What does this fold into?
Amino acid sequence: MFVAQQALAFGVGLLLGVLNVFLKDIQEFVTVLLMVWFWGTPIVWVLDIVPEAVATAQAAINPAYWFVQAWQAIIAFGEPPDAALLLRLAVIAVVGCVLALVFVRRFERIIRDHL
It folds into this structure.
């Protein structure tokens, strides 16, 4: 699970790093986005306090939610995370890395010329 989390972070970081070459304001956007994403992920609050529709949307679109749920299962409850959840995390991590690497390879020459 740790490897999948780091792979997803690497893919997102690589993609945002490339975008930062072309869009200088991406740095400020990422700062705000990470703060909103952090407070929108049930890390410091319990998912039970929000309406069911919000909880369902959170589970559907937020990959950080899945990582938090898996880590909570391991650390707080002492049980292994759901196998389907681990598979979903691995697939998302691999797809994120592959997309970021394809993006970097495609724009590599333009990035070198731009810098």
Notes: The chain has a mean pLDDT of 87. Residues 2-114 form one domain.
